[in-house]
Design goal:
With about 260 residues, the protein is α+β, with helices and mostly antiparallel strands. Strand 1 and strand 2 form a beta hairpin. The radius of gyration is 19 Å and the shape is globular.
């Protein structure tokens, strides 16, 4: 299964929004469905907390029914229940990515647990303060796993450059329950002995904070190039894990670029 890490693909969301704005100029058209596809490449940490990176190709799709629902490789599934002038909220579902033997590498794969990709579902609520700033939160729990997560985020849209280039920032912070932190950052006595580390059983805590810069450069009415760079830092129990201290790092950097076509 291909992975679609959120940092890079959030940039492509900007692309889809920009293409929508260009292709639909009338107020009535803004309520029309949106269909976008694209492809690109990204470089990102091999696993949450990893020191080494990997480069991979990524496909993209986005289907939006304004005011009703959205299904995309970027933000998973959202179904709007609350849709006011400023407040939006409803059902939320997305993929929580795991780690494979190849992600862990030859040194860790014989010892450290591999984690399956899982669907997580819950809800979201956000407030569009103005056309520039949106703040929100979401909570979700893994289906087929015991992990649970809570995200807080702020989106900031910057003034357009050269009247057509869209860009902006997103700051987000994620908290995770003990089950998620133990699965991803814990080591039992056997694992710790094999790696010459101290065993650890982390509890619930903040997991990471990230700052992303996203930019979209249109190349025609229906096409454009999206790019993204994100800096993330592990927090709390994950940052203190012997696994991260010995084989990974707290600081995580991701970047990517894609070509997007909007119908």
């Amino acid at each position: 299964m291909n992975r679609f890490p959120r940092p890079f693909l959030l940039a492509i969301t900007l692309a889809g929004c920009s293409l929508t704005a260009q292709a639909q100029e009338s107020p009535q058209a803004s309520d029309a469905p949106v269909y976008a596809v694209g492809a690109g490449v990204q470089r990102l940490p091999a696993w949450l907390g990893a020191k080494h990176q990997r480069t991979q190709a990524v496909p993209f799709f986005d289907i939006e029914l304004p005011g009703k629902a959205e299904l995309s490789s970027v933000d998973g599934l959202t179904v709007d229940i609350v849709r006011g002038k400023h407040w939006h909220g409803g059902v939320y579902a997305d993929i929580v990515w795991g780690r494979s033997r190849g992600d862990l590498g030859p040194q860790l794969s014989p010892t450290v647990k591999r984690i399956n990709d899982r669907l997580a579902a819950g809800g979201y609520l956000e407030n569009e303060i103005n056309k520039t700033v949106t703040i929100g939160g979401r909570a979700m729990r893994e289906i087929g796993g015991n992990g649970a997560y809570a995200d807080l985020y702020t989106d900031i849209t910057l003034p357009k450059m050269f009247k057509v280039v869209e860009h902006g920032f997103e700051f987000s912070v994620r908290a995770a329950n003990a089950a998620s932190n133990r699965e991803r950052f814990g080591l039992d006595a056997t694992q710790a002995s094999q790696l010459n580390l101290s065993p650890t059983r982390p509890g619930a805590s903040w997991q990471q904070a990230s700052l992303q810069y996203q930019i979209f450069v249109p190349t025609s009415q229906h096409t454009g190039i999206a790019a993204n760079i994100e800096y993330a830092r592990l927090l709390g129990e994950p940052a203190r894990s012997p696994l991260v201290k010995s084989f990974g790092q707290r600081n995580q950097l991701s970047e990517g670029i894609a070509f997007v076509y909007h119908f």
